[in-house]
Amino acid sequence: MLTPATDLDIDYSEPDYHYDDSAYRNRVYNGFGHPDSEVPLKFGPNIADWPAFAPAADAMLIKIASVITDPVTTTDELIPSGETSSYRSNPEKLSSFALSRKDPLYVGRAKEMRAFEKERRTDGKHISALDGVFARLSEVCGGVDPDRTMLGTLVCAVKPGDGSAREQAASCQRVLGGLANIACEYATKRYRSNLINWGMLPFTTEEPISSFGVGDYIYISGLRETLGSDADRISAWQVTENSVRRLSLGLGNLSRDERDIILAGCLINYYKKENN
């Protein structure tokens, strides 16, 4: 039997309410306004810092680490969801799953070029493995300086970035040393914006993606001047196993802020520079 409250013999009253936050004060440290700089910040076992990203160099040698000829490539194919999301606070670990369902060899290819760039930048080492590529470029365009050329990788796809707005689809490529994408078009503005925010060049091409091959190199120079202007295209050289040819890559309608973000190396660097 259900009885309404109005039928019960009770004298209802509204007691005074007093908030007691002692449970929080006793268990949670509140350092707002009075931080204790002597106490080190402790990270959980699966929380890691983002790697540092260098500003864009004027010249880049970018190795094609993956070519996807599907009509559309989803963000879930660029970085799988599900179990991998448990590593979202560990950029390096999460990046090891990039393209794992589409191109399992991509990560290894990208890491090789990333290691070359680290040696060049931090140890000042000459990368002899790329001497042949630079020699062929010098023959056709001249003025190539390997020691001042940033090294990285890119992904070619017909129409990448469909589906969710997960920025990890772009950030994982960047962590692995990615410097650009080449696409016939981008499936969503969100994915293209994510590339830009992570300091990657959103190239477009009118050529079929099949004209690019894994292991080819794209060389560009005068990048900083191009991004500093209003140019929407940049000249580049494609180095294949048997040839070196010139091509023109589109940059799309980049805003001034987007150009500055790419020049800075990523949005993090851009904001850091703005606030200093």
Describe what you observe in this structure.
The protein has 276 residues and is of the alpha/beta class. 30% of the residues lie in helices and 19% in strands. The chain contains ten helices and nine strands. The strands form two sheets. The protein has a seven-stranded mixed sheet with strand order 6-5-3-1-7-8-9. A two-stranded parallel sheet has the order 2-4. Helix 7 links the parallel strand 5 and strand 6. Helix 9 crosses helix 10. It is elongated and about 100 Å long. It starts with 21 loop residues before the first helix and ends with a helix. The mean pLDDT is 94.
Q: What tags apply to this protein structure?
A:
276 residues, alpha/beta, seven-stranded mixed sheet, two-stranded parallel ribbon, 10 helices, 9 strands, 30% helix, elongated
Which SSEs are present, and which pair or pack?
Elements: H1 22-27, E1 59-68, E2 73-74, H2 75-78, H3 91-95, H4 106-123, H5 131-141, E3 149-157, E4 160-162, H6 168-175, E5 178-183, H7 189-197, E6 201-204, E7 217-220, H8 223-228, E8 233-239, E9 244-250, H9 256-264, H10 267-274
Parallel strand pairs: 1-3, 2-4, 3-5, 5-6
Antiparallel strand pairs: 1-7, 7-8, 8-9
